[in-house]
Amino acid sequence: MTARIGVVTFPGTLDDRDALRAVRLAGAEPVSLWHRDKGLKQVDAVVLAGGFSYGDYLRAGAISRFSPVMETVIDQARSGMPVLGICNGFQILTEAHLLPGAMLRNNHLHFICRDQKLRVENAETAWTAEYEQGREISVPLKNVDGRYVAAERVLDELEAEGRVAFRYLDLNPNGSLRDIAGITNAEGNVVGLMPHPEHAVEPLIGTGGTDGLGFFTSILKKTVAT
Amino acid sequence: MTLDTVKHATETPESELPWKELGLKEDEYARIREILGRRPTGAELAMYSVMWSEHCSYKSSKVHLKQFGEKAPENDALLVGIGENAGVVDVGQGYAVTFKVESHNHPSYIEPYQGAATGVGGIVRDILAMGARPVAVMDPLRFGAADHPDTKRVLPGVVAGVGGYGNCLGLPNIGGEVVFDSCYQGNPLVNALCVGVMKHEDIHLAKASGAGNKVILYGARTGGDGIGGVSVLASETFDDTKPAKRPAVQVGDPFQEKLLIECTLEVFREKLVAGIQDLGGAGLSCATSELASAGSGGMRVDLDSVPLRDATLSPEEILMSESQERMCAIVEPRHVERFMEICEKWDVIATVIGEVTEGERLEIFWHGEQIVDVPPGTVAHEGPTYHRPYARPEWQDALQADDAGRLPRPATSGELREQVLKLVASPNQAAKSWITDQYDRFVQGNTVLAQPEDAGMVRIDPDTGLGVALATDGNGRYAKLDPYAGAQLALAEAYRNVAASGARPLAVSDCLNFGSPEDPAVMWQFAEATRGLADGCLHLGTPVTGGNVSLYNQTGDTAIHPTPVVAVLGVIDDVARRTPIAFAEEGLLLYLLGDTREEFGGSAWSQVVHDHLGGLPPKVDLDRERLLAEILISGSRDGMIDAAHDLSDGGLVQAVTESCLRGGKGARLVVPDGLDAFTFLFSESPGRAVVAVPRSEELRFTDMCGARGLPATRIGVVDGDAVEVQGEFTVPLGELRTAHEGTVPALFA
Amino acid sequence: MARVVVDVMLKPEILDPQGQAVQRALPRLGFEGIADVRQGKRFELEVDGPVDEAALARIHEMAETFLANTVIEDFVVKVES
Amino acid sequence: MARVVVDVMLKPEILDPQGQAVQRALPRLGFEGIADVRQGKRFELEVDGPVDEAALARIHEMAETFLANTVIEDFVVKVES
Ligand SMILES: Nc1ncnc2c1ncn2[C@@H]1O[C@H](COP(=O)(O)OP(=O)(O)O)[C@@H](O)[C@H]1O
Ligand SMILES: [Mg+2]
């Protein structure tokens, strides 16, 4: 039996179909989840995909965070279910306080879409186990509210505990503090990042590489193993 | 105020109505009275005035646009032609593709962000209304001089608007254009293209048939946006000194549109829709009259049931409102409940506002009283037709006589090098990534090629690799020198771009941006350009499937350059065979395909170095374009070429610069026998491309070119980290990159 | 240093998708009784020197030409006490 | 119907690039003497029924949990006179 990975669709989610495809390409079973349903259809892990849920009105992720599906996701995440937030999903995770800090408007104020180099700083989370520590990967980045901020104390704590999971390389595209591209919770089951691994899973498409596939094979291994 | 009902209108035949203020001419008003056999009611007048405006009725242009049908090439791929929301072409494997380019020029000058955003929103709904899932957008843009202060207001707003809306909808932006020319100073051109994909059986049309079927309005509530916008915008030249004339601006809500897309695709999937129309210009007036006139029966609408954002709107205003993000569907009674459920699922407001009737009239009621009773066809299709006078302007001869061949050319290698750097750094030739990086090109996970490639390409079937490619082009400078040739050059360039990517060109959409049709010189430009485009499409076998006309792009007496923007759609059986522009590997041999002549009229060189526009544009040879395309497509299919880049404005040196920078590799070039270095580098002869051929394929490739009679000249090799023109100069890639990529951020960041 | 505040709101007849989205979310969060929400911008300006009539006139002009887009927005200038 | 306004501003220690961009543009437009600009959000809420203490408490809670993200933002609730 393979792992069932859920992908949530909120109104305004855009990359849900891409995330489902990435799950399938990794060999897991993709399961669509709907924001109004509390039930998670017995999935082993959940991906909160990118997009502009609720138009990113008010603040990115602020409205989605209060949806029925998130009540369950928050609950389950606290008891160990793996959750990956990509871009808008990361924003939702910070709004839901499953991850510390907040996402703000890019320092240059523009939407930015580029091939982004990252370093995997923590290869022990549920979503990064297939990478080696320090591995450099290239995946698409595309957002307008991608600047990660948190209080100095929080940042120090994240660094000390190895919870900065990904860092921007070559260029910090948005003014994120300490070049942070993604973080994990202390347990390593909840991971959020701004760049889009689901757009780097096939040759030709997107960046034309498959550097992002490891997120989905990591979770497949992890959930099948446990 | 008493309600102006049909009954009231009959009883008060002499009441004066503000037909003039609504942009109607005296004879047009007389015609309406004749159609109705009485004076129109206020609501009827509102409908006729918007629907008979230039924007909706094409009254000045339709006698010329007819040619696209009359001269349409035989083409089995065409499933739905001109006249519907957008044309549909068969791309094989059971798939159909619909695409169209449209303008939102005037609103974007007034409010750049919202104007551009709602331009994208409007074209996306057109595509959706055909039954297709929108899969990509493009944005051909024209601005005033790059260093003009107003361009600093307009460009960032337009770009943010295109991005803000398209990104939020989840549509990858796969290409477009950014052109600067002071002729667009008061009239920037914001054109937007959308392409959608469906299965053949999913094609939907805008018609209301079947008495008893319900008319459902769904999407955003109706507000006071853009009322009269259509008629005021399209009928009169916008004059910014008179704020009273400023139409209300529409504000878009891309989030609402995203819900509309998903909701609409779901009701299509469950086959709940008998007919459908988006609400764009002229709002409900347009949707109801077009649906009713295309169907078999009549239609009855209760305007009171339209959900409003502003309760004080009058019935006339409701009919004319251009509130965004609305659609109108015709649904059989047995499907209404399910239709409503799906709308509720997507948080989309949906309301039955009327039904299809046995009769032949469009009847609209307000508070139970009849305020409209018209034959819908007279509103939708029987608007006036003008045969506007046109005449070749008297300045045309002098302009063409001012030959660019007489301009002083660089005298030394040093000067040549300097001009190369100046050219690739000039705003029109410089890299546009500062702009295009504000657009999401990855979303939907099917983008194979996007900017800065020759064409955008998306995969439409992940299993077979079937894909489509699109390019848009238009060169107003060429068209100014010769509008007939200019239109064909635009077509040829877009066609060539598509072929360079490896796809087979199939069909055309266009957006014709011109000045005032009341000026015979402009009308001549328009007539010539449409004739050129129609003849060109016939010759190349690519039918025009739809498009858009934008007139009155002028400030005072000065019109913009005639600017026909042409979009070509191509198909590729397997996107794995696509050809990128990047020179990515050392040792690849560079071949120049086609003939290079001394052609500098309207060229980028003449503009950048001499600020000159005169002479004749390069000579078009459509047979040559076709042959070149065949070679490029075969080369890609059979794996003979690793990269290809078409040659257009800026000539060879521009193409080589882009391909080298994209691949991060240099090139050593040799000036071929019989050409001087200057002509080699800067000529803009069409029908050419530069290709990078692996050594192992050289013989096969040159044999193919030889056998088919296409000149192929070896001009160098991919090598090192500089562009070197042997015996002339060397420019390190770093220097080239700084020149090419620094300009746009320096101007706008 | 004195603080001047410029509030910029969409004109009432212009669609405010942000405000709408907020309003629609409120009942779901258990907040009833809010009939309408409009969302606008607030600019806090720290002004060098005295905020006299001349200064306010300049700020008014700045709001009109730059901070607000009067095609779609209204604005109010206030001196913060 | 009564109007309650909620002003939401970034905390002073958080970088506000929007405010900065405005401030940097001002001298170019000929407006001197503005030492600092911060840009925030203004919500205008139309409240059904009386704006008594209970209502204000609820709005305060709404601002704290929803309208503002207190990790990065401060807010003020005001009854518009
Ligand atoms: N406004 C725009 N939006 C998206 N892509 C653009 C835009 N402007 C230019 N591009 C892209 O930049 C590249 C270069 O543009 P251009 O020089 O006009 O191409 P070409 O000369 O091949 O037609 C192309 O890939 C084009 O699609
Ligand atoms: Mg090209």
From TrEMBL, chain A:
UniProt GO molecular function: ATP binding; glutaminase activity; phosphoribosylformylglycinamidine synthase activity
One Pfam family, short name: GATase_5
GO cellular component: cytoplasm
E.C. number(s) listed in UniProt: 6.3.5.3, 3.5.1.2
Primary location group: cytoplasm
UniProt GO BP: 'de novo' IMP biosynthetic process
Keywords noted in UniProt: ATP-binding, Cytoplasm, Glutamine amidotransferase, Hydrolase, Ligase, Nucleotide-binding, Purine biosynthesis
CDD domains: GATase1_FGAR_AT
Catalytic activity: L-glutamine + H2O = L-glutamate + NH4(+); N(2)-formyl-N(1)-(5-phospho-beta-D-ribosyl)glycinamide + L-glutamine + ATP + H2O = 2-formamido-N(1)-(5-O-phospho-beta-D-ribosyl)acetamidine + L-glutamate + ADP + phosphate + H(+)
Residues annotated as catalytic: 87 (nucleophile), 196, 198
Pathway entry: Purine metabolism; IMP biosynthesis via de novo pathway; 5-amino-1-(5-phospho-D-ribosyl)imidazole from N(2)-formyl-N(1)-(5-phospho-D-ribosyl)glycinamide: step 1/2
Subcellular location(s) of the protein: Cytoplasm
Subunit record text: Part of the FGAM synthase complex composed of 1 PurL, 1 PurQ and 2 PurS subunits.
Role, per record: Part of the phosphoribosylformylglycinamidine synthase complex involved in the purines biosynthetic pathway. Catalyzes the ATP-dependent conversion of formylglycinamide ribonucleotide (FGAR) and glutamine to yield formylglycinamidine ribonucleotide (FGAM) and glutamate. The FGAM synthase complex is composed of three subunits. PurQ produces an ammonia molecule by converting glutamine to glutamate. PurL transfers the ammonia molecule to FGAR to form FGAM in an ATP-dependent manner.
The protein, known as: Phosphoribosylformylglycinamidine synthase subunit PurQ
Source organism per UniProt: Streptomyces pacificus
Automatic annotation (TrEMBL), chain B:
Alphabetic keyword roster: ATP-binding, Cytoplasm, Ligase, Magnesium, Metal-binding, Nucleotide-binding, Purine biosynthesis
Keyword Endoplasmic reticulum: no
PANTHER family: PHOSPHORIBOSYLFORMYLGLYCINAMIDINE SYNTHASE SUBUNIT PURL
Name this protein carries in UniProt: Phosphoribosylformylglycinamidine synthase subunit PurL
Organism expressing this protein natively: Streptomyces pacificus
Annotated signal sequence range: none
Locations listed in the record: Cytoplasm
Domain named Phosphoribosylformylglycinamidine synthase linker: residues: 20-59
Gene, per the UniProt record: purL
Annotated ATP binding sites: 58, 100, 510, 547
Residue ranges constituting the PurM-like N-terminal domain according to the UniProt record: 83-198, 453-572
Gene Ontology annotations for the cellular component aspect, listed alphabetically: cytoplasm
UniProtKB/TrEMBL annotation, chains C, D:
Annotated pathway: Purine metabolism; IMP biosynthesis via de novo pathway; 5-amino-1-(5-phospho-D-ribosyl)imidazole from N(2)-formyl-N(1)-(5-phospho-D-ribosyl)glycinamide: step 1/2
Keywords: ATP-binding, Cytoplasm, Ligase, Nucleotide-binding, Purine biosynthesis
Source organism superkingdom: Bacteria
Enzyme category, top tier: ligase
InterPro entries in alphabetical order: PurS, PurS-like_sf
Reactions this protein catalyses: N(2)-formyl-N(1)-(5-phospho-beta-D-ribosyl)glycinamide + L-glutamine + ATP + H2O = 2-formamido-N(1)-(5-O-phospho-beta-D-ribosyl)acetamidine + L-glutamate + ADP + phosphate + H(+)
GO BP: 'de novo' IMP biosynthetic process
GO-annotated molecular function: ATP binding; phosphoribosylformylglycinamidine synthase activity
Gene Ontology cellular component terms for the protein in this record: cytoplasm
Localization (cell): Cytoplasm
EC number: 6.3.5.3
Function: Part of the phosphoribosylformylglycinamidine synthase complex involved in the purines biosynthetic pathway. Catalyzes the ATP-dependent conversion of formylglycinamide ribonucleotide (FGAR) and glutamine to yield formylglycinamidine ribonucleotide (FGAM) and glutamate. The FGAM synthase complex is composed of three subunits. PurQ produces an ammonia molecule by converting glutamine to glutamate. PurL transfers the ammonia molecule to FGAR to form FGAM in an ATP-dependent manner.
PANTHER family: PHOSPHORIBOSYLFORMYLGLYCINAMIDINE SYNTHASE SUBUNIT PURS
Subunit note: Part of the FGAM synthase complex composed of 1 PurL, 1 PurQ and 2 PurS subunits.
Family, similarity comment: Belongs to the PurS family.
Protein name: Phosphoribosylformylglycinamidine synthase subunit PurS
Native organism: Streptomyces marianii
